[in-house]
Amino acid sequence: MKGRVWRYARRAVQNAMIVVVFAGAFVAKLGEARIYSDLEPVDVWVTRIGPYSNPFESYDFYKKVPICSRREVEHKPLRLGEALRGERYSKVSALQIRFLQREDDALMCEMTLDPQTVADLSQMLIQQYTYEMVVDGLPSRLFLGIADLDAAMLPFGNSSSGSSSDPHAQGSPLLLYTHLQFSIAVNKEKRIVEVALKPKKPVPLHAATSENGEASDLLVAFTYSVEWIEKDVKYSMRHQKYYESFEVEDLELHWNSIIHASMTVLVVAAFFSFLILRIVRKDFMEHERMRKASGGVDVSAAELVADEAGGGAELEFGWKLVRGDVFRPPRYALLLSAMVGVGVQLLTLAGFMLTLGVFDVFHPLNNGTLVTCAVVSYSFTAGLAGYVSGSVYKQMEGRMWMRNAVLAAALFCGPVFVIFALLNSVSVLFLDSARVVPLWSALVVVILWAVVTFPLTIVGSIFGRNATKVSRPPCHVNSVARPIPQTEWYRRPPVMAAMSGIIPFISIYLELYYVLQTVWGYKVFSLYEVLALVFFMLLLVVSITTISSIYFQLVVEDYRWQWSSFFYGGAVSMYVFGYTFGFFVRSGSSTGSGLVLHLLHISAYSIILSSIFFLIFGSVGFFCVKLFVYFVFTSVKSD
Length: 639
Hints:
Helix 8 packs across helix 9. Helices cover 54% and strands 13% of the residues. By secondary structure, the chain is α+β, with helices and mostly antiparallel strands. Strands 5, 8, 9, 10 and 13 form a five-stranded mixed beta sheet that branches. It has a four-stranded antiparallel beta sheet with strand order 3-2-6-7. The chain has helices at 2-27, 61-64, 80-84, 115-126, 241-293, 301-307, 318-321, 333-358, 369-380, 382-395, 401-410, 413-431, 439-467, 493-500, 502-520, 528-555, 561-569, 572-587, 593-635, and strands spanning 41-42, 44-51, 90-91, 97-98, 103-113, 129-135, 138-143, 145-146, 175-186, 192-204, 208-209, 215-216, 218-230. Strand 9 (175-186) and strand 10 form a beta hairpin. The chain is elongated, with a radius of gyration of 31 Å. The two termini are 39 Å apart. The chain is built from 19 helices and 13 strands.
């Protein structure tokens, strides 16, 4: 058996080393700083285009907007994270920008827009379509145009101040930007450190009318200007510009909100902790008093009260009465142990990702790095899921360890892969969306799972099963299960689970709001320190609330704590799902195919996010309650 274990381990390590070399190019940051020479071409790339009110609805720029497009469009090679996010980079060949060469009203192209194209562009302007241009890795988001003159100052601040002075724009309800003003800053090392891009020269977008009253074609000229300025900015600090708007406007309010919420939640958690400790300590004292009153013989509270004179009030010690059943293995131990193992893996992954965020690995110019790190790190932490699930399953007296390992390997990533496969299929077949994951990136993920995740899970399960010794529980387990009495409705597990998730959700809903607002509002999230603090606080609150709920469950003689602890700990996921889904529904406004795509994405992301919360904090609740149960029943002396 040991030889087989080492053989599996050796193969898994070899496969992991191969994948490390293969995935190195995807995990690395953006390329080294490029030093330009005079008059060297500077490439400009354009990304997806879509309505401002719905970031999930996006399309390929040149397929949606045929402005200065060519038959063959050059696309930039994508990293794994960029491909999984559905990024697209198309080269703007009409822009002939050369390093340090000034351009004034250079012509991109002249186009004749037919009435159908004018109608399509008009609809995009009404929906406030935005797109992103990238110069040397520095992104700038722009509006395609404006719906009226009063909308010139829109959230991105990219509107031209000269738009209102255009005599042709006066009185026109729809204006299309026809000029791009580039302001590119370079340092002394001839590296690009800043790009400011503004659209200008809005023209009325309406089809011309011929003498017979029919719509005719519209001739539009698209131009651009480039100016170069010198700035004393280090190349390594050029990404700080993308943090400024968020930090200056929201940082103080953000910290104050988090501190107030944290203090409130911690006070409530401290009160619960003090209450539970006091009650348990009182129960211990009463138990010892009963033992002394009975001459050292361990008897139940009911027997002692029956022997006491005076017929005093009967004391309830329900949690002591279930000591013969509290260590009974739960039903469906195979599934529970796999969920606990995957939860520990995701907890480790979350801690690792937060640490990288604190050290500024996920700054805005490392596009796709977060997704790449998450995918690769999940694969290489699969051994932890196998180890924990195998160990817990053995403690629960499980026998089908191979099924347990396979279930742990596929429990989370299997449903996630199915969800994204369905989204991808719908986007390709029906909606013509740009958020389509390329086939090669999907194959990389599948290979990564088959070569690294699955073998490491199997090996971890083998080690966890062999390294775990099943110890005798503190209390003897009865051969016949004790019947569980009927209780009031508010003490039943579903109601207790709903109540257990309220306080943890209150501790995070402010930070969850800021995170969702960042995703929806095209801002850059940089406050990973605050996020790590809130995450740690949530772990503490979930531990306390889960232990409190399990104590009240044991008091009513319900000894099924294993599954209950997992559901009580993961109950916060219900509120996370409802809040996330509601936030996205309120924030978006789409029609037609865009509405379908919007609903599909918010449903998928809400399910995945709430599932992560459920597995992580369910496993946290399980282990905290396990320690509590062992401590309490070990402290009660029984014969």
